[in-house]
Specification:
669 residues, Methane Monooxygenase Hydroxylase, Chain G, domain 1, five-stranded parallel beta sheet, EC 1.3.5.1
Length: 669
């Protein structure tokens, strides 16, 4: 199959407007005749289901949580980007477009990124109309703050719980459509396969997670909005239920999987504190607006801190290495996530880490300077031009609490350290996956009628996502892209009629799902699912993590193959199929993670360059920065599944053409 991205002709600033003006429509009286399935009800899925329901389509929405409000989108903290230029600091649609392409290390599709920047402003208007309580400045206007990879303030936020507030807005829209009968909600259901009829997506096989019943659901189009695959590493900032199963099942049925090696490591995560830890906790990137990242300049001071002989407050200002400010003076602590993460790893690998764990992985995120600065500003604004040190600190802490209070509370509850008094300890951790199902400009996969939205697709972030752009993409896809492109596809389905489920295609898909479930339950193994998931995560983090090299990737492929054989031979899944069985759920998901992990390593092995979150140690300059190979690797790597053996995956290349942005080496110095 030839990859056709279906990018419209014309100037990039007019592509989307002219394109959508000429897409086919479905008349309002015909929409109730058409069924659409939406898998996942985070920001992308909930907004898509609500929008399509409001248009009049019959929508079936599925989530494995007990409510759409529990989707992982709720965990996003810092904000959502939009090119509104409220701060009058030079922002524009083009600037957001440029920052996103540059931040992604010139490995994203131009047309999709420009469309995202175009519709970003509409998202804020939509969410304000829904009642999302964005932060406001003293005059009542919406407030903005900065995020990594930019030199403007374009991030709208609601304290440190932006994702939760945005999801509640989308959920309110979704709930209205459920109440009107236009959306049928299936909570506690998990998609386990897609059904194709005549080459088109015509439905799914889902398991009722409460009763264990296997169900058939048909539709004229299927939208996958099931999030990313960061939990392939076991430890990540993702919710423990986040998984790749929906995306992987459609991959096995013909949807190409693009750039799986592009994984984002977030620089501000609470460090790992024990071998029995099941997930990691993120500290919002917004904290880098106010916090300064440092380690001791002297290695003996770092050793003393790790041994408990010194406290961070004992280290004088001149003895601190603010390494991001030193290396990247133009952006300082607000460099993109991949840059900040590698810089922290470099300091810790060199022996300057401050966390007392086996790997010494930890650096400081310090708010003392901001407390003093904001305290003085606040005092001056109140007419106190000569405040005491105590007054300054009190006012500064109050300012910090107003901006980030819930984040500081969360940190203290987890670590028992008060971040108002001592610096936070942070270290990079797996957070977001830029790779995903390949889609064209319409967000349609290589399976006709199967669309993919949000983090589940690959389309907008290249090799590294800018902070606060995930929420932007999810809502852009659901509210402002899919209603047009899905309708264009469905215009050809008006006369199709209801899709029956008593067909050989549904029979075959259901039989395959049941066979996999029976295989796990009848296996006479001795090890838990988590045992294998942790082993997979260990391989992935050490050999397909922040630093990768040819030998490690080859070893990872072989080690995961051996792990896969052991998994199917020795996994033990208790319980039965006709009950609420979380171990069975995990077994199915981990089986897909194992296959994906191999593909990630293979994709990383073939990409002999460093770009964004993909850092090959063989390809770096003298200062440890990424060395891209634009001559040989300026493409999207889309993999076609042709059998269970990883060697049967076939690589297809979509060459990336940059007409409106000049490709250059990223420079944040």
């Amino acid at each position: 199959m030839t990859l056709d991205s279906k990018i419209p002709e014309g100037h990039i600033s007019e592509k989307w407007t002219k394109y959508k003006d000429h897409l086919r429509l479905v008349a309002p009286n015909n929409r109730p005749k058409i069924d659409v399935i939406v898998v996942g009800t985070g920001l992308a899925g909930a907004s898509a289901a609500a929008s399509l329901g409001e248009m009049g389509y019959n929508v079936k929405a599925f989530c494995f949580q007990d409510s759409p409000r529990r989707a992982h989108s709720i965990a996003a903290q810092g904000g959502i980007n939009a090119a509104k230029n409220y701060q009058n600091d030079g922002d524009s649609t083009y600037r957001l477009f440029y920052d996103t392409i540059k931040g992604g290390d010139y490995r994203a599709r131009e047309a999709n990124v420009h469309r995202l920047a175009e519709v970003s402003a509409n998202i804020i208007d939509q969410c304000v109309a829904q009642g999302v309580p964005f932060a406001r400045d003293y005059g009542g206007m919406l407030d903005n703050r900065s995020f990594g990879g930019t030199q403007v303030q374009r991030t709208f936020y609601a304290a440190g719980q932006t994702g939760q507030q945005l999801l509640l807005g989308a959920y309110s829209s979704l709930s209205r459509q459920i109440g009107l009968g236009r959306v049928q909600m299936y909570n506690r259901h998990e998609m386990l396969d897609i059904v194709k009829v005549g080459g088109k997506a015509r439905g799914i096989i889902a398991r009722n997670l409460i009763t264990g019943e296997i169900e058939r659901h048909s539709a004229h189009a299927v939208i996958i909005a099931s999030g990313g695959y960061g939990n392939v590493y076991f430890l990540s900032t993702n919710a423990m239920g986040s998984n790749v199963t929906a995306a992987w099942k459609i991959h096995k049925k013909g949807a190409y999987f693009a750039n799986p090696c592009y994984v984002q490591i977030h620089p501000t995560c609470i460090p790992v504190h024990g071998t029995n830890q099941s997930k990691l906790t993120l500290m919002s990137e917004s904290l880098r607006n106010s916090g300064r990242i440092w380690v001791p300049k002297k290695i003996e001071d770092a050793v003393a801190i790790r041994e408990g002989k010194l406290k961070p407050t004992d280290i004088k200002e001149e003895e601190r290495d603010y390494f991001l400010e030193r290396r990247y003076p133009a952006f300082g602590n607000l460099v993109p996530r991949d840059v900040a993460s590698r810089a922290a790893k470099e300091r810790c690998d060199a022996g300057f880490g401050i966390e007392n764990n086996d790997t010494q992985e930890g650096v400081y995120l310090d708010f003392s300077s901001e407390i003093i600065n904001k305290g003085r500003q606040t005092a001056y604004a109140q007419g106190n031009h000569h405040p005491s040190d105590e007054e300054v600190i009190k006012l500064g802490k109050a300012w910090i609490e107003e901006k980030y209070g819930n984040l500081f509370q969360m940190y203290e509850q987890i670590t028992a350290d008060n971040p108002y008094e001592v610096p936070m300890k942070i270290y990079p951790a797996v957070h977001y996956t830029m790779g995903g199902v390949w889609v064209d400009y319409n967000l349609q996969s290589t399976i006709p009628g199967c669309f993919v939205a949000g983090e589940a697709n690959f389309s907008d972030h290249g090799a590294n996502r800018l902070g606060a752009s995930a929420l932007m993409q999810g809502l852009a896809d659901g509210y402002f892209v899919l209603p047009y492109t899905v309708s264009d596809y469905l215009a050809g389905e008006i006369r199709t009629g209801t899709i029956p489920t008593n067909t050989p295609e549904f029979d075959e898909a259901e039989a395959a799902v049941k066979a996999q479930i029976d295989g796990f339950l009848n296996n006479k193994g001795t090890k838990s699912v988590d045992h294998f998931h942790k082993k997979l995560g260990h391989i992935m983090w050490n050999k397909v993590g922040m630093g990768r090299n040819e030998q490690g990737l080859i070893e990872a492929i072989d080690e995961i193959a051996a792990l896969k054989a052991e998994f199917y031979r020795d996994v033990f899944v208790p319980g039965s199929a006709d009950e609420f069985n979380t171990e069975l759920e995990k077994a199915i998901r981990v089986a897909d993670f194992i296959d994906l992990g191999q593909l990630m390593a293979r994709d990383a092995l073939q990409r002999k360059e460093s770009c964004g979150g993909h850092f090959r140690e063989e390809y770096q300059d003298s200062e440890g920065e990424t060395l891209r190979d634009d001559e040989n690797f300026n493409f999207v790597g889309a993999w076609e599944y042709q059998g269970d053996d990883i060697n049967h995956e076939v690589l297809h290349k979509e060459v990336l053409k940059y007409e409106y942005i000049k490709i250059a080496a990223r420079n944040y110095k």
